């Protein structure tokens, strides 16, 4: 029996789906620990008071370090989606299919099995609340990757932080409040529902990623605050960006505190593993402990993340792990601590750190942790880092990477250079992508019409503008199509229809009121559907979103309205889903944020 959409959030149906793909559910063990994972978005190592930043107060996050274990040298990727893929799979991201942060390039291959798959198969309730950033459509959607429940945004960047439209298990809904508070509310509700455990709760925050938007009560604490602890490259620091990032961190810390308080109230804190880390270095030049680099860079400052793991029942309080580790290690570590098997048979790149966390005596051999992005690869050992240009640094004597010692230690330099070359070969990393390739939509088609998840959202991010149509800003995430004025213009999505049947088509649009009435056509193969763009709907751009001016690369947002175009029969297969205008009575057709197809019938 195929599960219906209504059933998809239930435990029974998801376990049934797991059996279909080779995962077997096991009986729930009440002694097994719950797991809560917090993932910050663009928080640098230096954004925490426990790391010496006296300009910010993060007492709740700091408490995880004081009451748990700190991994002192913990490495992630330079940007968001690769880190998330490595955490979810325990594998370096080039192997998972993730090679970009938007336009479908952020999607993990369906063959990858995730940490959520493992906990779900072990009988855990699983939920994800916040920024996903590893694919929006089934089989890349969180519900297809081991989560019973999902609430948040699957896009890498979201342009609305206040009263945002967010997704709940495939359906959009308008929320009320600040996005981090709202997603944390959903996580709290999930924990309350499953307080008798075991549960796996993933809370990937959206902050301090831009846009620079934070509740006013937090901004007022920082708006006139002198910035006296400066960035490594102080001349590049924008002090207002620093102030806003730190204000966001204090809001985030408050939300971490809300979750920790609930665990105490439910009397499950002792047997709950709580993890906190970030997905890359800071997204602006600000204090980062004197390290070189920031977000997008493969130097130490771009990829060193805080990592705190608390489990009062087993892990020693205040313990520090000095061995290097990374995001790839969390899957094997957390499954080992919980006593559950991983699922899938793809080889892991991460190591089980549980013995180090427990403080057990162990012979821990040195290792190499590789980082790559945009054609740049660096490698870290316990003592050294070789950067993307082949420069060698002694990170114990020179943590700021100020002196190249490649000539002074040629044997180490040759060994690490060869290791990078071999690793790149194993990962299939060839020539770096050109800027045009990085902006292009992934050639892998976007799937439509899985019966178990019949609603498929196709955002403008994943489409291709043709003719005179443009994106609302250079950053595709959270963008929409604009400048549609000609009969020669097209909006195109490369899709693979999984199930033949009738599909309800809804377009999220705006249109100047005098220009309403264009006749548009949606086509796929020899199938056609036409409809009028009406009524006119031309809301202003939001003025209540930003604390600081929005970066030019990011879209200014507005309220979009659904246009029900009707129903179109589609046959299974791959091709271009094309939206064009047949008549334009005014000067403009419409702006388009999203196309949603919902499977109505099956053969």
Features:
12 helices; Jelly Rolls; globular; 603 residues; alpha+beta; 6-stranded mixed β-sheet; 10-stranded mixed β-sheet; Alkaline Phosphatase, subunit A; disordered N terminus; 3 domains
What do these coordinates show?
With 603 residues, the chain is of the alpha+beta class. The chain folds into 3 domains: 329 residues, Alkaline Phosphatase, subunit A (3-Layer(aba) Sandwich); 53 residues, no CATH class; 155 residues, Jelly Rolls. Helices cover 21% and strands 25% of the residues. The strands form 6 sheets. It has a 10-stranded mixed β-sheet with strand order 7-6-5-4-8-1-9-11-2-12, sandwiched between helices. Strands 18, 20, 23, 25, 26 and 28 form a 6-stranded mixed β-sheet that branches. The longest helix is centred in the middle third of the chain and has 27 residues. It is globular, with a radius of gyration of 24 Å. The N terminus is likely disordered.
